[in-house]
Backbone:
């Protein structure tokens, strides 16, 4: 064994307080036979975005932000440092073939699930296009699926105008029979951010929609709790799909489609906490963060904070 | 007619979803005899700012942000794509003669109003100095005028120290007899942002002042509604003058005079919605946005969102 | 005396409105025998930060932001232009010897206090490491001291891993007998921002802790008032120690340790106003602002606004 | 006709000096039957880049930079304001189907050439992937083609690893029989920027290579002139393909693959001037500029300056 | 006298090496009767720029950059720390009246010269518009004046289109009889940066023009020396007017009108050195630096380096 | 072994061209008994900088830039992919104790050398303060040492004013008897960048100095070659110490002490190539790069290019 006094060739030389556990220290690369509470998988696909997006850099930037957080919650007076998190790495996407990339994501999520290594999973996009293959794979593995989608947009564009983009995942899922409209809840939909035709399409499909006004009126936690209760009667598992542009541009400046009038970061975190503790919630994706457009990684940092709310629920 | 398969020489090649109408698609350049619901005029004057400001770039950046919004409101379940908006372009200001530029603005607003082409108008500044000639022109055309001013500042500086600047419009209007103090309402005035002398001046002139504390206490919508009711008894038309620095620096980082403790973007949008639906409200200006200081056009984007609340009221 | 028509060789040529007093105009460099209401001292030490920080630039950037504010409060209908503020300048820190720098701060604060020139004092950091020598010096001068600390973090790290850093001031103070844990109140402590060991340490020492949840639940002003009342029974003076990272990253983007889910700038300002008016409150420090990471000096501007709430209390 | 005093609704209100002609004023959108000296076509494709690139924004940013230049050359004592330039607009690329986009480019270039509207053409990329369909189309229209390529890289990657990317255009052209290696000249190839295998591939294909050392030694203008003379014996037309990363990162900071040790902007401009005046040179593309990574549009500005050297040759 | 151990209330606490003299330490504010070798005057006028410019901030940023330089030249083996430099401060310009501001500059320069306090002077713009009143004042004081102008542009625009702007100073001077065209030398004029009409105007007026090609061909130092010799036969004093946009955009990225193909910073510095040592050279202005557009104050730093070449000539 | 189709949990999913070897792929973490041609060690110390510097981030950013380069040189027609490079990681510095950090560096370099694992070494700073312990350690290990220092500054400040900083390494080395002045060559020293006292000190110590003028006059390669020949008669090994601020600010914008008038990046690279091929040259350090101040990692990229010139010499 190499023994130097002040360096370890294979490890970064960051300052270490012996009493502090950073969340990133709890992630270990998955290897055969490993078991953990939560699995993390990166889905760095963003060429499917209608506008050019570097959201493919988000898995890296979100993971890096985990080092800004400790494993201890004063609120619950619990140190979660023994919650093991397995990192499955990132899916290798194809430089020019989008459909191939989408299929690689579906296959990879399935392969991950087949290992039965974890109880719950976090998928790091990428753009919202990744939710189509990801949710499909979860459905294939677990059975009937319900989805709660945080988003300013319906994401049910037609497929003729541009193929499968970040504007189409929920249409692809519903048209393909992978998700029933009745089992999709959309939270945070905004005025002047969607087309009438797509609004009507979601309504016809039976999707449940909550706007910003609804959130202001009722509170986001009560909405989440009510819908989880309802959904859980009809589905085997529930998947949270979090498009960060549901958050106001002041709190999430790094989303490709930023805008005013969204939810606050506090509303985001408390609603994810509320959802994550439900027993049927097995997965969460975090999408539409473009680190190259962000300010001081604020949006990746918010996403990392959201991961903690999902991971540390007991 | 030229027919290429994949290009149109006179049009941008942006992605187009056939079911989506973006707000910018509803703007048409004014031509003789045209009629529309709302007229838009750019007033790119900012050399009148005490501090150097590029708010003269704001008409362009705000218009560009309209392409981030669709014409559909889920809240009102209405698609406003048939509301025609006429763009009168930008007034050509003089490079070095400020008084000439101010006069050109007054003349141009009057010429626009004389066409009787629209029911309501949006004026895009520029700095707050543009409100003096603009409100004057509206008064000359329509008669007795009332003004609701969103602003952290009174804007009634003396004229001797620097001529007509962005700090003087309401003094110029009151001194010139174009606006009675009784018919001016100021919303969002902040502590430590004004001088005692000017505070007293506005009081003496009969101006009604609402501070941030008043807004927190009473709510901004009730204040707006109450004042519209009151004002409408005394005036022929009401003009909204929106200095974006009324908004907190976290939500409007692109104002020259940013500061903490302002209103939120949600308060801005809801109060403009409340005001715009009143029958006597005929015009709104949006001023003091410097795109060169902004982050990701957040402030121009907020201004564009404010335009929608003004344009789409039915 | 030199008399030029349009210039004064020793003064900046900024625009001046004769009726406006900017706060910076009320600061005068301390000279022997001078007296004022508030003393200001810069403590530009940031090499004690665990991560590299340019918070040593903050005394300059905060002072510069004072020129963005006037001395007039509409709320209290008072012009504070006659409140004299004495600027004691900045302590010269050592380029490479941290312990020497800390000692220089302690000595300098004491020397300042010994002059008895002011009733109350503002200390501009620098990182939070400056609070150790500063609070020590206040205790040495005034007697028994109580501290209200706005912070996301406990700041009671062990000293073995890195010496006296910005993570250790309150441990140094309590271990050194300069501050009793019972007399320390921590406001705004966040989940996943501290280690279990340090949480327990503060509890054992008798420190009173208020989390973000407590603030949401009870309101920050009532908490402050209650604790001031309680503390004032046991101590001679009260010192406010304001780590700006207590504020949410959207409102204070220039802190080294930004994060989501903190208090708003309005909560910060109102809580400082509430505290500053208490008779035993004699000092406030403002720390952990790194101007090189800020956006448009928003965080320094917020700090300057906080200074006004402390200075202008009558 | 509408007549306002100071505004024209359909035109920007920029300052105009009556004696100055800006280059952008000489561009007119192509319409049926129009004729001009130079045709300009935008090819905004960059999803074919191996790394994410916003070079699809370059056609717009380069065109915008034309307004920074006048039509007058003091060196030649000539005002080129009567050289008519036809703008064919931008090809509409597909959001997710790369091969479709490449084919659209080939078709669009051919359709443009079929009009016989201009003598010479400028193609604005986009990434270097656009040169494959563009050069193919020129070959199909004009016959035997020679290419001078300014580039730090050979661009002959294998197609199996990632399909047709910005790393493959010249392999695609040679493999497809659209360009003989003997008729390809590469200028500015850099050490440690290419793989041995690809270096050998170009050698075997008969490609002529000039490195930075060759340029330092011989001078870039003499090299260009010599190769033009040689090439013109074997081909019908010559196409200039200018990858801006041939320029040193200090002079072209907006290229995706910036690096030290490239040519200066002066070398770029003089070599393009030298090439453009040759009779067989019919086209030039300008690729690999990502405006989102640039500083003050310096790289687009350099590209616009390069356009002038190509357009104004007499 | 106040005596603190580690602070001086009226002085910054920067690190000081006892053996180093920084150039800024040699500047003293002018007071009645003071004498020095060089006088410095700030002319912060930039609203006369055709495009919005913050070059009014340049006097401050250039002065600040003087602290990056010492007074010692190894080349001449001389320490210039005893060369006294008097700082006359900045002229107070008017916020809205341009002609008034121009007149204030003329008067202030004259008032400065009348004191006979220095042998030579540096004028810090501001935009190039300041050279009109400045050169006029020098002519009024000293008699017949010759000017060497470093510039990419002729700056002889007509006055009808926009009044006296940064595009007109040399026309104003020649038309007003303050400068003979024969006594004006322009260095660094660029292709595609000027209009034919203005090129012809300068020729007719007898102005001597050197282009970039001339500089490459002959070398900039020989040109300067030749022209100084020639000029000195006809004029009483020589004034250097340095528009920083003569420098290539890679070396001077902070000019409003940046462009490729200019001179290098080394050419700038050596040519100013060459000029400054001539006995009839009495003044230099440095204009067209906008610190808000610069990168790390590189352009101000270059300007400060140019100041040293002018100040330290012996 | 885990087998997924499209992901490897422990490896990044970047695009890989099977025929390309990137330089970073040739680095392997040192483990006991490993042997390589070149050893790399990170020395992330920058709190010793007089001004605050994040040059401690440079080891990471320079290593990251290695992925921008391949192992193939066309000039030498050689693929260096089999040159093994051992990465010894980064020395863990102390957060607050500078002397301890300096000693840790000395010990770590010695420990590295004791392994006899490599023939030559690259040390990645950090600020120039690291050269004191690093050169000392090399001397202790190898015997008599000669140094060629690329630098705008002499770096021989007195130690009383600030302790051992980045301004003192060569004084510490000479005073401590670790380096004879006769065996130190300084290349690129600039006017107005040093104090007279320190200039004289180096002269007295027998240091050989080459200024920018010398380089312009003689050429940098001939100087290097001449001095290597001379030095090699007197010393056992030669150490290259490269302070990147020797390079002009246009080419190395990320140095803390940027300035105009330095050498070009081409001069840097060719001079390092010339030096590295000498048999007695055993080590090179690269210091004074602050990635937080850089533009697009241009300066780290230049440093990585310099590493290649050192590593690949055969
Ligand atoms: Ca979405
Ligand atoms: Ca969305
Ligand atoms: Ca205002
Ligand atoms: Ca205002
Ligand atoms: Ca703290
Ligand atoms: Ca803290
Ligand atoms: Ca290429
Ligand atoms: Ca290339
Ligand atoms: Ca000029
Ligand atoms: Ca110019
Ligand atoms: Ca050095
Ligand atoms: Ca140096």
Residues:
């Amino acid at each position: 064994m190499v023994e130097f006094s002040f360096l370890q060739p294979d490890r970064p030389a960051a300052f270490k307080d012996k009493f502090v556990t950073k969340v990133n220290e709890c992630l270990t690369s998955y290897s055969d036979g490993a078991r953990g509470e939560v699995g993390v998988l990166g889905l760095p696909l963003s060429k499917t975005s209608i506008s050019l997006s570097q959201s493919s850099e988000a898995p890296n930037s979100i993971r890096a932000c985990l080092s800004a957080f400790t494993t201890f919650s004063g609120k619950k007076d619990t140190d979660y440092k023994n919650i093991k998190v397995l990192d499955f790495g990132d899916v290798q996407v194809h430089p020019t073939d989008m459909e191939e990339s989408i299929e690689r994501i579906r296959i990879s999520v399935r392969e991950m699930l087949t290992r039965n290594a974890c109880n719950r999973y976090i998928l790091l996009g990428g753009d919202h296009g990744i939710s189509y293959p990801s949710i499909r794979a979860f459905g294939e593995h677990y059975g009937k699926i319900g989805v709660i989608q945080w988003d300013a947009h319906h994401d049910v564009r037609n497929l003729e105008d541009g193929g499968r983009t970040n504007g189409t995942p929920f249409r692809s899922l519903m048209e393909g029979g992978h998700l029933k409209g009745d089992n999709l809840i959309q939270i945070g939909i905004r005025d002047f951010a969607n087309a009438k035709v797509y609004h009507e399409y979601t309504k016809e499909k039976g999707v449940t929609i909550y706007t910003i006004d609804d959130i202001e009126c009722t509170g986001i936690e009560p909405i989440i709790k009510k819908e989880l209760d309802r959904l859980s009667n009809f589905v085997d598992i529930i998947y949270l799909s979090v498009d960060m542009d549901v958050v106001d541009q002041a709190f999430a400046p790094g989303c490709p489609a930023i805008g005013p009038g969204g939810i606050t970061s506090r509303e985001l975190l408390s609603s994810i906490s509320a959802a994550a503790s439900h027993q049927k919630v097995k997965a969460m994706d975090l999408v539409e963060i473009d680190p190259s457009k962000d300010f001081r990684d604020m949006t990746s940092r918010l996403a990392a904070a959201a991961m903690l709310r999902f991971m540390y629920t007991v």
